[in-house]
Amino acid sequence: MNRDKNIKQFSFHAIFVMLLFLILVFLSAMIIMLGRNIYSEINSDRTANYEKRVSLSYVTNKIRQNDKKDCVKIEKLNGENAVVITEAYEDEKYETWIYFYNNAVYEILVTAGTKFNLDDGMKILNVNGFTIEFLKNNLYKFTAKSNTESTEVILNLNSN
Amino acid sequence: MKNKISINSEVSLVEIIISILIFAIAGAVMLNCFGSARFAQMKANDKVEAGNKVQSIAEMIRSFDTSIEADEYLAENFRLLKTTENEKVYVVFYDKYWKLCMEGNEEINNEYFITVKTSTAFADSGELKQFVITSEKIKPYAFINTDKETSKLYEIETKKFFLSYAGR
After folding, report:
1. Which residue in the set B2, B42, B45 is minimally distant from A6, CB to CB?
2. What is the distance in angstroms between the Cα of B107 and the nearest Cα belonging to chain A?
3. For testing contact with chain A, the best of B31, B36, B39, B56 (most A CBs within 10 A)
4. H/E element holding B8?
């Protein structure tokens, strides 16, 4: 009788301890999964944020640096709008083309009027989309897309 | 034999309970860290978006030749919130995806808002107008900024001189 009681007590203790241990393992796994999900979300957000922010600020800063009369133009390249910045070095005119091609923003510096292939340029940043829209006199809208999110900035050219 | 079994079970139970307590404390700290990191990243994303929106509004205002054009732009695209003798405050609401809230729907889906405060600093041969453009989140971020009523994301203070004869 006494032995039966002890066996029952032991079983209850063992099951209770095992149950607590299982809860501990389950909660640990939950915390790890939660941490993993949050980390991957933060990482994907950070990448998208970086792509949108850097592509837009790169182009806007380039334009602001060269915002002189007749130096900044928007021209068609391969059916898409591209930024063309004209500079003169030692009486020779050079053009910096910034354009979207093959899911990336590219830049190339050529002597004015030189034809070039789109993949000749230097890749600045991978983005899913980059568009330049003319709004009205001197006002342009730049839109950068990363994954499904897009952000835009409007820029006013002082010089033209 | 009987006593040995009993002692081992009790020790295991105490050990497990202590482990769970330690785990609960560590888990609470970790959850707080995860939450802070997630909301800090959300705030960083919002700051970029808010910065772009605020800068775009500033660039739009900068592109106008006369203060009347600027006022018309603000009246068309924003809701007049407050007006005093020298100052006007306009507001526009955005939803959680930073899409413009449609008129009449602002109170339901709004998550962010941008205010444009305009005031005339000087008026003689033209008008020197001051614009303060501020972007804020209506509800503060959880885990961070819990002590504040709203969360300010981005602010630009700028002035533009509009000539009387509408030159630039």
Report:
1. B2
2. 24
3. B56
4. helix B2-63
Q: Between the CA of residue B156 and those of A101, B81, B94, B133, what are the distances in Å?
A: 34, 19, 18, 5
Give pLDDT tens digits for B116-136.
999 988 777 788 999 999 999
Nearest CA in chain A to B19: A24
How do A122-126 and A104-111 pair as beta strands? antiparallel
Q: Which amino acid is at A88?
A: A
Q: Do B20 and A138 touch (CB under 8 A)?
A: no
Which tokens belong to B21? 């307590």
Residue B18 phi/psi, 5-degree rounding, is -65, -40
Q: What is the pLDDT of residues A61-76, one digit of tens each?
A: 999 999 888 899 899 9
B window 60-79, beta carbon within 8 A of A: 60, 62-63
Tokens of A70: 């007749």
Give the separation between CA A87 and CA A108, rounded to whole angstroms: 13
**Beta carbons within 8 Å of A125's beta carbon, 6+ residues apart:** A51, A54, A55, A58, A104, A105
For testing contact with chain A, the best of B41, B72, B143 (most A CBs within 10 A): B41
Its ipTM equals 0.79
Q: Give the Cα separation of A150 and A55 in Å (integer).
A: 12
Nearest-angstrom CA–CA distance, A82 and B27: 51
Cα A146–chain centre separation: 5
- Interval A40-56 mean pLDDT: 90
Q: Which of B13, B41, B49 sits opposite A42 (nearest CB)?
A: B41
Return the H-helix or E-strand segment holding B94: strand B87-94
* CA dihedral of residues B96, A43, A142, A64 (deg, nearest 10): 120
> In chain B, whose CA is at the least distance from the CA of A3?
B2
